[in-house]
Amino acid sequence: MEKKDNNSLMIKERLKDLTGIDEDQYPKEYIQYPLLTKIQNPPTYFVYMLMKMSAFTCYTGEDKSKWQVYVKYKNISFCIRDHKLATWSIDLIGSNSDIENAKRIAEELRHRIESACKKLDKILESDLKILVGQNNFFLQNSYHQLRDLYDYYFEQTEEVLQLVDEAHIKLKTTKLELLTDSVNDTLRLERVASYNACSLISFFFSYTELLIDIMFIFHIYDPANNPWDRFRQKPWADRFKTVFPVSTDPSMAKIYRNIREIREEWRNVLLHGFQEEAAYLVPIPSVGVIPISYQKASKSIHFSVNPSPENGEKKALETCTAFDEWCKKNHKALYALLYAQSDLPIPLTMTRVEQIRGWMISPDIFEEKIRGELQWQQWTLDLYQ
């Protein structure tokens, strides 16, 4: 059993939705009947926080349940409980022959809890923003969501390009009467490869944005002199060159030139709706509308058959592969990559950042520390799963 926080009484006074819900004693004879189960909204962690901040006693000890609260509402005893850290439930405590009536009242109780959580969410929002302003927060680690999309389109682009190469070889031996169909099939495959490559580069830049943030936080970040919010306001090129040794590492300098070219001549054109200067058409009497420069237009994807530069798909694959390989060999980038792969939240709280920096003795020690963190998390989860 946990002690009540006196400050929680002030919160409870502001949560009028909880009026009429009284704390009940821990039942001596535990007869439990599930009424409402697998409730997801509000999330279980927030209901737990609501109960704690509203001065209810939170118990632990039930199987597959991190917390339980016993309340009396309209003269009926209920248990509000967590289930596997994923959902929460409302159970009837004690014998009650009128189950349908108890279920109806449990639904009223659920509605009151939901309303109180919405109110608490608004109460806490301003205070939590203050903590963010004090750099006392973490970033959601979205590595696997981004990397899975990146890997998927990398594989799709690679596979279709192989089919394109095979189609070009086949064209050389295709009979004249079948040539039109073969050409059309080849053009279709080239278009599919281009579409997949467009998605590939989009998610490649999303993925690298995450690595850039982690590298800055772990190797450069200082709330007083190098704050994260100021770093995030810089242009992409400045942020990239801040964390990657473009000026001192020839391999990274070459990778950066290719990435920048892909970004400026392909990715930005796609994501900005093809509205760069290359798309401007100027009317010339007796001629029609023409691009500002035919030389620039010939190199721009604005006027290409597919939304990618010539040989852009292969260059994208080569550049992405080179970047990934470089990150695996560079210790600073490898630390960021290993942490990203862990799914652990990314800290801006300086005490946590310093702790993680202390792990950077070697990649092996770094991985060992991460495994320890993950094992502890898993042990905690196993208590309630």
Task: Give a quick summary of the entry.
The protein is 58% helix and 11% strand.
Shape label: elongated
Oligomer: single chain
Order of strands across the widest beta sheet? 1-3-4-5-2
- Structural class label: alpha+beta
Query: What is the residue-mean pLDDT, rounded to a whole number?
Result: 87
Helical run tally: 13
Quote the distance from N terminus to C terminus.
Answer: 21 Å
Q: What is the element string, with H for helices and E for strands?
A: HEEHEEEHEHHHHHEEHHHEHH
Q: State the share of residues found in helices, binned by percent.
A: 55-70%
Brief descriptors of the model:
13 helices; disordered N terminus; 5-stranded antiparallel beta sheet; single chain
Q: Please, could you describe this protein's structure?
A:
The protein is of the alpha+beta class. It has helices spanning 6-14, 44-53, 99-133, 143-171, 179-219, 228-232, 236-243, 250-271, 294-299, 312-329, 331-342, 350-357, 363-382, and strands spanning 21-23, 32-39, 68-73, 76-83, 87-93, 138-139, 281-284, 288-291, 346-347. A five-stranded antiparallel beta sheet has the order 1-3-4-5-2, with helices on one face. A two-stranded antiparallel sheet has the order 6-9. The radius of gyration is 29 Å and the shape is elongated. It starts with 5 loop residues before the first helix and ends with a helix. The model is unreliable at 1-6 (pLDDT under 50).
